[in-house]
Amino acid sequence: MRRPVVRKLTVAAVSAAVVSVGAAAPSESRTAPMEKVPVAVGHGGAVASVDADASAAGIEVLRKGGNAVDAAVATAAVLGVTEPYSAGIGGGGYFVYYDARSRSVHTIDGRETAPLSADKNLFTEGGKAIPFAEAVTSGLSVGTPGTPATWRTALSSWGSKPLRTLLKPAERLARDGFTVDATFRAQTASNEARFRNFPDTAKLFLPAGELPAVGSTFTNPDLAQTYEELGREGVDALYRGRLARDIVDTVNDPPVDPASGYRARPGDLSLRDLAAYRTKNQAPSKTSYRGLDVYSMAPSSSGGTTVGEALNMLEGTDLSRLSETRYLHRFIEASRIAFADRGRWVGDPAFEDVPTKELLSQRYADSRACLIKDDAVLTSPVAPGDPRDPAACATGGTAAPTMYEGDSTTHLTAADKWGNVVSYTLTIEQTGGSGITVPGRGFLLNNELTDFSFTPANPAVHDPNLPGPGKRPRSSMSPTIVLDGHGRPVVALGSPGGATIITTVLQTLTGFLDRGLPLVDAIAAPRASQRNAAQTELEPGLYDDNEVRKRLQDIGHSFRLNPEIGAVTAVQRLPDGKWLAATETTRRGGGSAMVVRPVR
């Protein structure tokens, strides 16, 4: 039922399977765990997520006449059950929607917000930053959740089914249980010490005081009841009802085990904060790339502007003709420069003057791309440019390092028979969020506010990502939809991974659009991530490639190993109304790609 052993497929084997492999949701009466398949092709719509139960829920909605928005909400709700350390109603996210009838793209900013009492000193004591780990596991880190409001906004704008109906698969799974796999156990184990500090968290995720065994059934009746309440009373139950009071009480007086000796700093969240929360319907970011239009999230996310700026810098080079070494060099350097500009210019536009249009202009990209040399490597931290006044190869700004950002989160993609598409990234931030479970409610609270800079990254440079009252912390989430010149979808994708989301989406896009890789191979390819740091992170597939790594080191690159970067899910529009869904083959235990009617 959840992440069984992944079928061992090489990248080449996956490519060969694309033309013939399909996966559809089995009937609700199944008892055995479903095999996860990384690629599926067929008609009637598609869903791709990290979890087989979640993808199956979305497919069932499509099969019963729902659209891509309905399927995305149902899939997300199940991920709140089976991926509780990455997503849930205690978090937030960004929703990108393509409307086939109007051939237009719309977005919902469902990012969490700081309490109205917050100021720039939210994470300081005595003028010094609170230790990061202590800030994470505290009430201070919890922002007002945006996920339930995102579902409401999406369904009221474009959905066709009521929330109550769409929550039923998740409610049923929470009550009946799912099968624990090695990934779920490992994520629990990595959080075990801090989970034990909170009796409600320990009771839920450490049943009988032990780590859940692989193969056992994990149930969450409290979450089932919470979903039932949301379906019955509507989303306002979380923002104005009893559930709102439970959240506020938990944040402001974290229920710590007195015997643990742990000091969980209280937050200052109020019922007013929850009642005042609103999602933002806003225009997407847009970048033209090789005759295609790339749409993503505008700020408060930095995903759309940073991926877009890097694409604009790379557009002047024919990446399809480059060697692997030269391609990676260009990709790394463009990422480095784009992250320099991200750190200086991107924050919540309700509080900061974010030059989104200028950051995405080709003129500015050209002024920055001239810094990239084929025989040399830029030294990080690279100084930002000024998109409002582009100067060719300018290096006069003051550099600031890239701050840490948690690497949890999950992404799903969905498409329907009418051609509508959703790319949706949702999160509770760190794996396990704040570690604090709302008593009797069955879900973890986010630690999203630790995505703010605790103090300025460089005191000499304005930091647009300091906390503020009601402010949204900067995100790297990059849910993306690419359209062709006729306004029809080509591909939609996204990834978890904190700040590595940006480089993961960028590398997958260039692998698919420029390097000619089939979508599932572009996803499976080994990754690099450069975020204006001294060293570039490489996955083992690249780090262990001594020939490519040595050639890059000879130019001046420095590397460190990262065992796993990102976890992409995607859908691709094919001819004759077919869809291809694609996910990871191995990362995070592999993903689950499904279509309504597979092509055999």
UniProtKB/TrEMBL annotation:
<feature type="binding site">
    <location>
        <position position="451"/>
    </location>
    <ligand>
        <name>L-glutamate</name>
    </ligand>
</feature>
<keyword id="KW-0732">Signal</keyword>
<comment type="similarity">
    <text>Belongs to the gamma-glutamyltransferase family.</text>
</comment>
<keyword id="KW-0808">Transferase</keyword>
<keyword id="KW-0865">Zymogen</keyword>
<dbReference type="InterPro" id="IPR029055">
    <property type="entry name" value="Ntn_hydrolases_N"/>
</dbReference>
<comment type="pathway">
    <text>Sulfur metabolism; glutathione metabolism.</text>
</comment>
<keyword id="KW-0317">Glutathione biosynthesis</keyword>
<feature type="binding site">
    <location>
        <position position="111"/>
    </location>
    <ligand>
        <name>L-glutamate</name>
    </ligand>
</feature>
<feature type="binding site">
    <location>
        <begin position="475"/>
        <end position="476"/>
    </location>
    <ligand>
        <name>L-glutamate</name>
    </ligand>
</feature>
<comment type="subunit">
    <text>This enzyme consists of two polypeptide chains, which are synthesized in precursor form from a single polypeptide.</text>
</comment>
<keyword id="KW-0378">Hydrolase</keyword>
<feature type="active site" description="Nucleophile">
    <location>
        <position position="409"/>
    </location>
</feature>
<dbReference type="InterPro" id="IPR000101">
    <property type="entry name" value="GGT_peptidase"/>
</dbReference>
<dbReference type="InterPro" id="IPR043137">
    <property type="entry name" value="GGT_ssub_C"/>
</dbReference>
<protein>
    <recommendedName>
        <fullName>Glutathione hydrolase proenzyme</fullName>
        <ecNumber>2.3.2.2</ecNumber>
        <ecNumber>3.4.19.13</ecNumber>
    </recommendedName>
</protein>
<dbReference type="InterPro" id="IPR051792">
    <property type="entry name" value="GGT_bact"/>
</dbReference>
<dbReference type="GO" id="GO:0103068">
    <property type="term" value="F:leukotriene C4 gamma-glutamyl transferase activity"/>
</dbReference>
<feature type="signal peptide">
    <location>
        <begin position="1"/>
        <end position="23"/>
    </location>
</feature>
<dbReference type="GO" id="GO:0006751">
    <property type="term" value="P:glutathione catabolic process"/>
</dbReference>
<keyword id="KW-0012">Acyltransferase</keyword>
<feature type="binding site">
    <location>
        <position position="498"/>
    </location>
    <ligand>
        <name>L-glutamate</name>
    </ligand>
</feature>
<dbReference type="Pfam" id="PF01019">
    <property type="entry name" value="G_glu_transpept"/>
</dbReference>
<dbReference type="GO" id="GO:0036374">
    <property type="term" value="F:glutathione hydrolase activity"/>
</dbReference>
<dbReference type="GO" id="GO:0006750">
    <property type="term" value="P:glutathione biosynthetic process"/>
</dbReference>
<dbReference type="InterPro" id="IPR043138">
    <property type="entry name" value="GGT_lsub"/>
</dbReference>
